[in-house]
Amino acid sequence: MASTTETKQKKMLILKSADNDEFEIEESVGVQSETIKNLVEDGFTFVPLPNVYTKALIKIIDYLKKHANKTDSNDEEIKTFDKDFVNTTFDDLFELVSAANYLHISCLMNMLCQTIADRIKDKSPEAVRKIFHINCDYTPEEEAKIRKANAQAFEGQFDESLD
Amino acid sequence: MENECSKGRNRKYTQMDYEQPKRKLAHAQSSSLPSEIITEILIRLPIKILLRFQSVSKFWFALISSPQFVKAHLVKNKDYTHQRIMRTCIGHQMNSIKVYPMQSLNYESVTNPYDLDCPLKNHFMIVGSVNGLICLAFGAHRFLIWNPSIRKFKKVASLEIASGSHIAGFGYDELYDDYKLVSIFCGVKVEIYSLKRNSWRKIDDFQVGEVKSRLPTLVNSKLHWVTRCGDILSIDLTDEKWGRLEQPFYGEGDDGFDLGVLKTDLSMFRYYERMTCGHTNQGYNNEGSKH
Fold this sequence. Notes:
The complex is a heterodimer of chains A (about 160) and B (about 290). Helix content of chain A is about 60%, strand content about 10%. Chain A is built from 9 helices and 3 strands, in the order αββααβαααααα. Chain A has helices at about 1-10, 25-30, 35-40, 55-70, 75-85, 90-105, 105-120, 125-130, 140-150, and strands at about 10-15, 20-25, 45-50. Chain A has a 3-stranded mixed β-sheet with strand order 2-1-3. The termini of chain A are far apart. Residues about 1-30 and about 285-290 of chain B have low confidence and may be disordered. Chain B: Keywords: Membrane, Transmembrane, Transmembrane helix.
């Protein structure tokens, strides 16, 4: 009985994704996001997130739940969770990093940015363009000039893969 | 254990942030990550990789070259910027600059120094280095400021100076984010060059006299030298004023002393017959530092 009462007393929040799905989470889990925390402080319990789509929101709620229950004993478990969390495609990482940035979850931002940085560091500029969906706006002459100016940065072989 | 997430970022939610969806990610996917996120990612990469990524697009080039990015990159990677030491090889060989990764000096029995491709091939001196920039002196009171990471350098406007005893120092002004070069001529005339201003300026009423130590010590945006009369000369790089500190009195015996930096304090090392004694000048630094 005691546990039921406890559950009832827990403050809950409803998060609404950009594609109109609603998720109920505990307030203590949600406030790890600065954006949500500020809304909660202003008295909101219903939080529309027009910048965060369902797919990313599900993953982020998982992350917040896991990290809300951080203790000394589950350190390894959380590390494993984090490792699995970032083991995904670049497009997924970009969607997650945009959501984490919008929600202002600094530890998630750090982890995602570091993961992306680590994964692109050996890539060629061509691969980076494809990964980030960037159109090259240099003329071939301009590009050659920049490469020549930084010739030492182009020594060696680069990773052309897109994953 | 403290939950890292709870620390959060000190950015407050604003109405505008909240109400204006920046873009539809589900459709656009990653086609246009905002520059603030690109910055957060790139800031974690070493300079050599950033130089390569300048050729990704004009936007990436502009972002990576911007002063804001450079500053943020420096702050983010501050722990790594002091991990190298340098030395010149002067002698029969041509002058060269070698870099020793500090890490390997501390933890490995063999260190593998590597040469930096110095823009000067003839005789030169190292004036100083800070934040990865190296200031070199050559010829008759000529200087250049060199960034070995991007292999670029800038020649400093020449200083009109007569021949005589001449000492120089190089440091960073944290308040105005500027690099400054100090030239002391015969202990009577002090001039400061600012990289931002790109010109020299004379310091008025300099009365400290000749300095004894060649290399100054940089603490809290001030360069410090030991003077011939045993005091400490400080040149404040922020307000471009000079100051004098009397050395602490230790009693009998004066075998001279050297300056150093202990964490963020100016420190003095005195030499006695059998031992070295250290003294930090914390009060002075606190007085001079920003709060």
